[in-house]
């Protein structure tokens, strides 16, 4: 356990990628505060030992209350599926958190972002909102660290429907799949050094696989079939059924058909230690925990 007196506010701490960060902060000895809409749900998910404040990032009063006497803020928000929802969460909420943190004199803000992110690559509602959110954080004047992460291993089960796993689009780019466990450890370590301040750090796992290769590893021996589907077909199905999630996913996967990894994890690995969990190890761990 780290010898620290820091109190960190985690926004999005009950989400798929925020929860591991909150848990790692707590395990490492930080005092962890959560801003949540449903405190009872948060306690069921995370257990005791957290400071929990009821509220919402879109309500200034609860946001300012949550920011009182904290040393840092970690933002792990997910917008969508509509363009307005992406902008509200990935851009406007990030901006308001950063400005409120500056007003409160918070020492740093850390932000979960994506690897394929730049003005050139801002060709979807999500990527445009994230670009604006990153820019707002930098412009706020509060010290920051942006984590531009490759694909998380935890996202793979989201493509499973029954006994089928959808491989959406022509996903040819090799991706350094990362376990949220490794990512959470890097976020926690970033609060122990000023060398990570005002940087965009690329977080890549130890091995590269295309999405199809990763799905083959994930489905090996579990009776799930990988079923390819084009982004065009998924988009059409979404329009015909008025399913905004399908339409949004089709846009997202079309984006990743085009853009592969182009950043370097060298600086992040040097400052925070390189991720070690391989995809095969993660799959084995997941299967073992499911059978218990």
Characterise this structure:
This protein is of the alpha/beta class and 292 residues long. The chain has one domain: Rossmann fold (3-Layer(aba) Sandwich), CATH 3.40.50. 44% of the residues lie in helices and 18% in strands. It is built from 11 helices and 12 strands. The strands form 3 sheets. Strands 3-2-1-4-5-6-10 form a 7-stranded parallel β-sheet, with helices on both faces. Helix 1 links the parallel strand 1 and strand 2. Helix 1 crosses helix 6. It is globular and about 50 Å long. The two termini are 28 Å apart. 44% of the residues are buried.
Looking at this protein, list some descriptive labels:
single chain; 292 residues; alpha/beta; Rossmann fold; three-stranded mixed sheet; 11 helices
Distance between the termini: 28 Å
Rg of Cα set: 19 Å
Structural class: alpha/beta
Query: Would you list the SSEs in sequence order as H and E?
Result: EHEHEHEHEHEEEEHEEHEHHHH
- In the predicted model, the low-confidence regions spanning at least 5 consecutive residues are none
Relevant CATH superfamily: NAD(P)-binding Rossmann-like Domain
What's the rounded overall pLDDT mean? 94
Structurally, how many domains make up the residues? 1
User: In total, how many beta strands?
Assistant: 12
CATH topology: Rossmann fold
As laid out across the biggest beta sheet, the strand order is 3-2-1-4-5-6-10
Number of helices: 11
Gross geometry? globular
- Report helical residue fraction: 40-55%
| Percentage beta strand | 15-25%
Largest sheet: 7 strands, parallel
Question: What is the level-2 CATH architecture name?
Answer: 3-Layer(aba) Sandwich
């Amino acid at each position: 356990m780290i010898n620290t007196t820091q109190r960190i506010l985690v926004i999005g701490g009950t989400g798929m990628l925020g929860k591991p960060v909150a848990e790692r902060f707590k395990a490492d000895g930080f005092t962890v505060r959560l801003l949540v809409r449903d405190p009872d749900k948060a306690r069921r998910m995370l257990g005791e030992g957290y400071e929990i404040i009821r509220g919402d990032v879109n309500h200034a009063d609860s946001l300012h209350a949550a920011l009182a006497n904290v040393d840092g803020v970690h933002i792990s928000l997910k917008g969508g599926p509509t363009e307005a929802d992406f902008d509200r969460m990935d851009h406007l909420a990030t901006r308001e958190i950063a400005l409120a943190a500056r007003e409160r004199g918070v020492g740093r803000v850390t932000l979960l972002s994506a690897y394929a992110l730049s003005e050139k690559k801002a060709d979807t509602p999500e990527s445009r909102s994230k670009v604006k959110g990153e820019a707002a954080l930098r412009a706020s004047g509060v010290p920051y660290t942006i984590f531009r992460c490759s694909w998380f291993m935890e996202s793979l089960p989201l493509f499973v429907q029954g006994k089928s796993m959808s491989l959406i689009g022509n996903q040819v780019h090799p991706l350094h799949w990362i376990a949220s466990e490794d990512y959470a450890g890097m976020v926690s370590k970033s609060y122990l050094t000023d060398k990570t301040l005002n940087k965009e750090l690329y977080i890549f796992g130890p091995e590269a696989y295309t999405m199809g290769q990763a799905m083959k590893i994930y489905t090996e021996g579990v009776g799930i079939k990988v079923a390819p589907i084009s982004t065009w077909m998924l988009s059409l199905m979404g329009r015909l059924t008025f399913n905004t999630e399908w339409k949004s996913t089709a846009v997202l996967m079309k984006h990743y058909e085009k853009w592969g990894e182009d950043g370097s994890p060298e600086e992040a690995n040097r400052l925070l230690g390189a991720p070690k969990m391989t995809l095969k190890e993660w799959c084995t761990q997941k299967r073992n925990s499911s059978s218990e």
